[in-house]
């Protein structure tokens, strides 16, 4: 599939800028942020995405809390 040049240029620029971000009022940026060690995660919703994320986090060794609206959602 041939991608028009202007679309290709836009995508390349967006890709280059994706890792550069800042919060309003100079509260943080991609340069000043530090990772936070995680031991547990919470996921709200046990649908297709929530269930998949919960499984992935469990397999990754995280204590995982899955909050559902109904007990029948995750069956």
TrEMBL record:
Q: Which InterPro entries match?
A: NAD(P)-bd_dom_sf (IPR036291)
Name under which the protein is recorded: 3-hydroxyacyl-CoA dehydrogenase NAD binding domain-containing protein
Species annotation: Caenorhabditis japonica
Q: What is the lineage of its organism?
A: Eukaryota, Metazoa, Ecdysozoa, Nematoda, Chromadorea
